[in-house]
Amino acid sequence: MADTYKCVQGDTGPQIQVTITDTDGAAVDLTNGSVTLHFRAAGTTTVLFSRALALADAANGQAVLQWATTDLNVDA
Questions:
Q1: 40-50 as b/e, with b when 16 or more CB fall inside 10 Å?
Q2: pLDDT digit of tens for each residue in the chain (76 aa)?
């Protein structure tokens, strides 16, 4: 089940921890890898910005999104 986060312009929190899994639900080993999220407005294809995630526990597929102060300074 996915969590829903409601963010507003200027938010810098909360940190969001994710576990990257394969189609069977097993955690993907991210050792020597990276995770990047690309953000776009709902219903569009234009990427507003991308954010690299910090690897929290790479072997177990865990990464953390920490917002930068200007990430959410976009038009509604």
A1: eeeeeeeeeee
A2: 466 777 777 777 778 899 999 999 999 999 999 999 888 887 889 998 888 999 999 999 999 988 887 877 776 6
Structure token digits, residue 38: 């690309």
CB atoms near residue 71 (< 10 Å): 19
12 in Cβ contact with 68 (< 8 Å): yes
Backbone angles phi, psi at 14, to 5 degrees: -85, 160
Tell me what pLDDT residue 76 has: 64
Is 7:66 a contact under the CB 8 Å cutoff? Answer: no
Q: Do 62 and 56 touch, CB atoms closer than 8 A? A: yes
